[in-house]
Write a structure and sequence with these properties.
It contains twelve helices and 18 strands. With 464 residues, the protein is of the alpha/beta class. A hairpin with a 4-residue loop joins strand 15 and strand 16. Helix 7 packs parallel to helix 8, helix 10 runs parallel beside helix 11 and helix 11 packs parallel to helix 12. Bound molecules: ligand G2I. The site of ligand G2I has 9 residues, from loops.
């Protein structure tokens, strides 16, 4: 007899689900610490888990890797948005003036279509990866070539692109807040809005994004982008979204105000998207950073999705930093589990990850309680109040971990017992405020030096 793999999987899933529920019920009955809550039907892929909150989960794809079975298998299973990593760039799509070449980009678009995924177009106008004929132009000739390029490529893909990175990386690094001094910039400061107008005319239904790096927290560069978006909105220049590339490593970690920065752009009336996420590192530190980024997106209504910049570590533009969610063999990393768990609201998937050798590290906890921060500046430092709110069950105890920005330290705390003063500081209930009724809340606070925390804290609880 042959086994239908789909039916076989279904039977196995429901049996496992039964086990999970039984264990959970037993835990509640004895009142032991429980950090999981919510449904036992948490989705088991990045795409499905993101879809549960109306978001997408994407990856950058290289056309030449589509013949790699492991790569293709993960792509098909996990992702609901696809960004061509290089294939839609100017050097790839218009290698000679007015001679367009779409073969590789088209392969990626058909792959996306065949798996029911959408496409982020990347990138119409950029100072890098310009074909040599572009590099030899300037002034009006370059401006017109750029506008023609935007029009032709956006027209070719009209109706097939969820969002275009119309302009990429047009601002300078450092504290100047100035535009990057590129050949495109030298055609006149209005080149960015001209590109956006051309893109809108060519594909009225694509969302039009400005995309950049080192704009992930509040700084001179992101302030300059913010001012541009605000100006575009006030003058009716068509812009719908801002992409935050989010390439992180030890020198450039996830900023403490990452979520707040996404939110301030969202408040301008644009969608925000995490467009090229990768975080160098390994193990728990990497997994925690991925969870923070994921949670930040979930906490910002206008953050509609996350794209990681490649599938396996070996596919990355900086492979030696092992910055992605799958290792070189295509095995899920701890970072993968942490992203999935965060997308599922802190709930473990109802079926275990299917990749052999997948790590079984406990996910960040959550669900039984939530914690929110409010900060006030005080005496050169800050005072933070944290509100702990119980979910649908009463709590008999709780603890909250607040991650402080680097350089910040807790100097005193009240209505809680704290452990540690820097980095991830844990606050457990005091003897008198551990009990919280279902849906009720309690507050504690602390005072500190340095920059106030802004990341939504992780809350765990005992029920009963
Ligand atoms: O640099 C990381 C990303 C920063 N934001 C914009 C993205 O478009 C950029 O992606 C990277 C690609 O991941 C690389 O794959 O952009 C690089 C070029 O700026 C890409 O590297 C290029 C190599 O430099 C070329 O030598 C190579 O021919 O990839 C090309 C195609 O494999």
């Amino acid at each position: 007899m042959t086994l239908d793999p789909a039916r076989h999987r279904g039977r196995r899933t429901s049996r496992l689900r039964g086990v999970v529920l039984t264990v959970a019920a037993g835990t509640v009955a004895v009142g032991a610490a429980l950090t999981l809550s919510g449904t036992a039907d948490a989705a088991t892929t990045l795409g499905a888990s993101a879809a549960a909150s109306g978001r997408y989960f994407g990856t950058a794809v290289a056309a030449y890797k589509l013949s790699d079975a492991t790569y293709l298998g993960i792509l098909n299973t996990e992702f609901t948005m696809v960004t061509p990593e290089n294939e839609m760039k100017w050097d790839a799509t218009e290698p000679a003036q007015n001679s367009f070449s779409y073969t590789n980009a088209d392969r990626i678009v058909s792959q996306a279509t065949s798996m029911g995924a959408r496409v982020r177009g990347h990138a119409l106008a950029w100072h890098q990866q310009q074909p040599s004929w572009v590099q030899s132009l300037s002034g009006t000739a370059l401006r017109n070539a750029m506008l023609n390029h935007v029009t032709q490529v956006a027209t070719h893909y009209r109706g097939q692109i969820y969002a275009w990175d119309v302009v990429n990386e047009a601002f300078a690094d450092g504290g100047s807040g100035a535009r990057r001094d590129s050949n495109l910039q030298q055609t006149g400061n209005d080149w960015i809005e001209a590109a956006f107008r051309a893109a809108r005319a060519a594909d009225p239904n694509a969302k039009l994004c400005y995309n950049d790096y080192n704009t992930d927290g509040q700084n001179a560069k992101s302030n300059a982008v913010y001012a541009m978006v605000q100006d575009f909105k006030s003058r009716g220049v068509p812009i719908d979204c801002v992409g935050f590339q989010s390439h992180f490593n030890a020198q450039s970690p996830v900023p403490s105000d990452y979520q707040a920065n996404l939110q301030r752009f969202a408040d301008l009336g644009v969608e925000v998207q995490i467009t090229e996420l990768d975080i160098e590192g390994s193990g728990t530190a990497q997994a925690d950073s991925y969870a923070r980024v994921t949670q930040a997106c979930l906490n910002v209504t206008a953050c509609k999705g996350i794209t990681v910049w490649g599938i396996r570590d070996s596919d990355s533009w900086r492979a030696s930093g092992t910055p992605l969610l799958f290792d070189g063999n295509g095995t899920k990393k701890q970072a993968y589990t942490s992203v999935l768990t965060t997308l599922n609201g802190g709930t473990e998937p109802s079926t275990p990850p299917s990749t052999p050798g997948s790590p079984s590290t406990p996910p960040p906890s959550g669900g039984a309680c939530t914690a929110t921060l409010s900060n006030n500046a005080w005496n050169g430092g800050f005072v933070t109040t944290v509100k702990v709110t119980a979910g649908s069950s009463a709590l008999s105890g709780w603890s909250v971990t607040v991650t402080l920005p680097s350089g910040a330290a807790v100097t005193s705390a009240w209505n809680s017992q704290s452990s540690g003063t820097t980095g991830a500081v844990r606050f457990a209930n005091a003897s008198y405020n551990g009990r919280v009724t279902a849906g009720g809340s309690t507050e504690f606070g602390f005072q500190g030096t340095g920059t106030a925390p802004s990341i939504v804290p992780a809350c765990t609880a005992s029920l009963g």
